[in-house]
Amino acid sequence: MTDPVAGPSTLAWFHCFAGIAGDMALGSLVDAGADVGEIRALLDRLALPGWHLEFEEGLRGGIACTRAIVGGDDVVVRTHGVIAALIEDAALPTRVTARAQAVFHKLASVESALHRRPIDQVHFHEVGGHDAIIDIVGTAAALEVLGVDEVCASAVATGTGMVRSAHGRLPNPAPATVRLLEGIPSYGRDVTIELTTPTGAALLAALSSAFGPLPDMTVASSGFGGGAGEMDDLPNCTQVVIGRRSSRPAIGAGQAAVLLETNLDDVTGEQLGLAVSAALGAGAFDAWVSPVTMKKGRPGHVLHVLTDATLVEAQRAEIGRVTGTMGIRATAVERWPVARSLEQVTVDGMTIRMKVGGGRAKPEFDDVAQVAAKTATPPHEVASRAEEAWRAAQRPPRGPEGSPA
């Protein structure tokens, strides 16, 4: 896999002349050179039994393409929270996690609005099964395998007529698809097939930083992801073009990121807390608030959101929704995150997750608080015991006379 670095960035442009679906996006990236073994290795980290993923070469309208086929007997209706936890617990690379979480958060936000229920009560039907989870996380994994720093897309084609769903027959494009395409250039074709699915629209809405014709780039590879079956007058596939284009001068071998900021002087503490939580929920690397003195001596706050460049549009929308801000500024930055892993220790028979990196281990406070509440032990004591349990696990075993075994 290619680590993101400053300087020329790697770009993926999706050409959606026949729409886009999750399996078509994943298939196109494999057709463009993403290693199937590496993608499967990342997907295997998901605690999601019973799925299998195959790739089938074929032709659509005479164009050679690759079709992603996800199998498995899965009729589970999952909530957004369950899927978010599934992705978070998989310990995937940072950008894979952020991109997958952003897509499902976008889907959950739309379902919440369409069904008028809180986002934490949203139940996914079609997009909660094995196929959608593998399509979305697999696409995020394929982008990482190809070292893609930025995603953009053409205008998006949609069909007409009616489509079937878990809620019965719905107009084509489906209501969720239409909501997800808000702000994205789209057009209809006189085709009674669901060209763009909610999963495909969510991938674009959450990950694309720009829409339009092929950007200025040096093309490195390209590929086509095939849909199910042929169409009479249109190749049933999505194209992706991978290339390099110049960006800001390099500061060093750091990870490119964007710092979004907005000044706020008319929001409550509760809104500030919600804004931080919303940014993190939408895939930000980090989010925080700083107190400042604004014009005319008014006290205020600055909301800072550090995010991947691919999530800028999604983060801007989320910040605006939660705070009602009149404007947001952006600064291109670099960061040097320390590699970390997620391990576990046991304290009083209960599991505490440990974030390990840089020669130290830090217990997850939510787990610490839960154990502290159940055992009536001060949280700092539980944290100390968790750290000691982790250190003990790192020591080599000793023989019967005190020498290393």
What's the structural domain tally? Answer: 3
User: Percent range for helical residues?
Assistant: 25-40%
- Counted beta strands: 20
Mean of residue pLDDT? 87
What does the overall shape look like?
globular
Q: Give the N-to-C terminal Cα separation.
A: 38 Å
Q: Which runs of at least 5 residues are low in confidence (pLDDT < 50)?
A: 1-7
The biggest beta sheet is recorded as: 5 strands, mixed
Spatial order of the strands forming the largest sheet: 11-6-1-13-12
Computed structural class: alpha+beta
Residue fraction in strands: 25-35%
Count of DSSP-assigned helices: 11
Oligomer: single chain
Radius of gyration: 23 Å
Q: What is this entry, summarized?
A:
With 405 residues, the chain is α+β, with helices and mostly antiparallel strands.
Descriptive report:
The structure is a single chain. By secondary structure, the chain is an alpha+beta fold. It has 3 domains: 13-245, no CATH class; 255-335, Transcriptional regulatory protein pf0864 domain like (Alpha-Beta Plaits), CATH 3.30.70; 341-394, no CATH class. The protein is 33% helix and 30% strand. A hairpin with a 2-residue loop joins β18 and β19. α4 runs antiparallel to α5 (130-145). The radius of gyration is 23 Å and the shape is globular. The two termini are 38 Å apart.
